[in-house]
Amino acid sequence: MKYTNANKILPEKLINEIQKYVQGETIYIPKQETEYEKWGARSGGRRLLDRRNAAIRHAFISGSSIQQLAEEYYLSIETIKKIVYSHKK
């Protein structure tokens, strides 16, 4: 996480107001909820997992057993069950 000195970005009046509550400490100011991105949206990780899960569901429908899929994808049997029995399409 990158830190920025408040003196460089905030007006003096606002800094004085904040100092009534906290001084000399690091505080985190979160993004507005409208600015949040879902996990993996930027890196593409979510898209890769969605494709993998779709392939697992397809293989299950095509006859592969849960045990076979767990071994093939190096996942636990419980994880495979969650993937194949979820209602995502």
From TrEMBL:
Pfam families named among the record's database cross-references: Mor
Coiled coil: none
Superkingdom classification of source: Bacteria
Residues of the Mor transcription activator domain: 10-86
InterPro entries, A to Z: c-mor_Regulatory_Protein, Homeodomain-like_sf, Mor_transcription_activator, YraL-like
Protein name (database record): Mor transcription activator domain-containing protein
Originating species: Ureibacillus galli
